[in-house]
Design a protein that fits this description.
about 250 residues, alpha/beta, Transcription Regulator spoIIAA, 3 domains, 4 strands, elongated
């Protein structure tokens, strides 16, 4: 790692520069080993220390806490572990913590892509006819919409909507804008559908296509619902739901 950084700082930009550095190092080991063995370890340590200090981006370290406090803390932890333990442990811990924080951020962003409304006054991108149908439902028809890539991080957000489901008489799960449905998210959708069925709600699952539909079919979700509640579009589902609670 240090050799690569030094190579870049010395002007190396192509793969050839990396190969050239590796060849020189190999020649030193194979041919110049007897001479290199006579170099005092204190000199080698001094060279390593000087190179290590030079490759540190001191300007970034001074500003790291302003850019991202979590990122700065991870960096300081990795530095401490590198000095006090070893490099492999430091890299492992740093990558692990960084992944956990990334997953948490992604989960928060994806949770915002889950929306549910029971009136036409919501922010969902639906037609005027669909808004009117929701208004006709007088808050008893819930439109539950998922958007984008749904992975394991959204399961908690889906579960949080159970109270809204229990307060209505019909639920329309709209999956038309789902680009990817992960296994955990699919199980969360299945649980939400099953709980709605258990408490006697009308349940519609519409818009599922491609891999999303195949995944739900493998879970057996569509076998739990009549075909007329899964083979229709969102508008027809809302119309049927409103008629069913009238």
């Amino acid at each position: 790692t240090m050799g690569t950084v030094v190579n870049i700082q010395s002007g190396g930009r192509s793969a050839l520069s990396g190969i050239f550095r590796a060849v020189i190092l190999m020649l030193v080991i194979l041919v110049g080993a007897p001479l290199a063995a006579e170099i005092p370890q204190a000199v080698l340590a001094g060279i390593a220390l000087k190179v290590g200090v030079d490759i540190v981006d001191w300007d970034f370290i001074k500003r790291a806490h302003r850019i991202s406090l979590n990122g700065a803390l991870i960096m300081y932890l990795v530095i401490a572990l590198t000095v006090l333990v070893d490099l492999i442990t430091a890299v492992f811990v740093g990558v692990f913590i960084a992944n956990i924080l990334t997953i948490d951020k992604m989960s928060a962003l994806q949770s915002e892509a889950i929306q549910s409304v029971s009136t036409g006054d919501g922010d969902l991108e639906i037609s005027d006819d669909e808004r009117e149908l929701l208004n006709q439902g007088h808050g008893k028809v819930l439109l539950f919409q998922l958007n984008g890539a749904m992975i394991f991080g959204v399961a908690k957000a889906i579960n949080r909507e159970h109270n809204a489901i229990s307060d209505c008489r019909a639920v329309v799960f709209d999956l038309s804008k789902v680009s990817h449905l992960g296994v955990t998210a699919a199980l969360a959708v299945e649980n939400a559908v099953e709980e709605a069925i258990e408490v006697g709600r009308q349940v519609f699952v519409v818009g599922a296509s491609g891999t999303t539909r195949r995944r739900l079919e493998k879970l057996g979700l569509f076998s739990k619902l009549p075909a007329e509640r899964t083979e229709i579009d969102r508008r027809e589902a809302l119309r049927t739901a409103v008629a069913g609670i009238a």
